[in-house]
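ARCHIVE CARD
Drawer: 12
Card no.: 0347
Subject: one protein chain, sequence and derived structure
Cross-reference: see card 0346
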Amino acid sequence: MSLEKIVAEAMAGRPLEMKEAFEEEIQTRITTKLEEKYVEMMEAKSKDDDEDEDDDDDEDESSEDESDDDDDDDDEDDEKVGKAMKAMNDKGSSKAEVLKAMKEKYGCAGSKAEGLYASYCG
């Protein structure tokens, strides 16, 4: 949706359609900003993790810790993706739209995305 759509609906005297167009535009803008913030935070975390790895003397111990952390991060990421899917689904987005958005936003695609969709959106 765009601002043009909002204006067109307002000019046509259709307040409900205008409200829906406005809500979609706001949701899109909020989602975009949250995605950008998330990417920035993950890049900063990645840089910090890289610096921490360089400081560790025992590489074996650090590798074990990282694999445990990766498992936790995967679960947290899956939960974030699932909640984002549910929010989009609740707003009336189709399954195809939800899966496309999750692929673009989180890089989650294929059977994993399908499984998360089934779990969170039923």
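Annotation on reverse: The chain has five helices and no strands. Helices lie at 3-11, 15-55, 59-90, 95-106, 110-121.
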